[in-house]
Amino acid sequence: MKTQENEFFIDKIITKYQSLSKKEKSNINLCLALIFTVFIIGQLYNGGEVFGAFLYNISH
To answer: What pTM did the predictor assign?
Structure first.
């Protein structure tokens, strides 16, 4: 029963999103893109920090 409720919930979200105007959709898409961009930049920074620490430990 839980999966049917979850599918219904997802269907409601999709229907609400499809009923939005183009301006509202573009605002939502822009916000999501900014959030994902910040997340990716953070992951790249963390990866660079680990790589830098690795190079520092090898060279010293």
So the answer is: 0.64
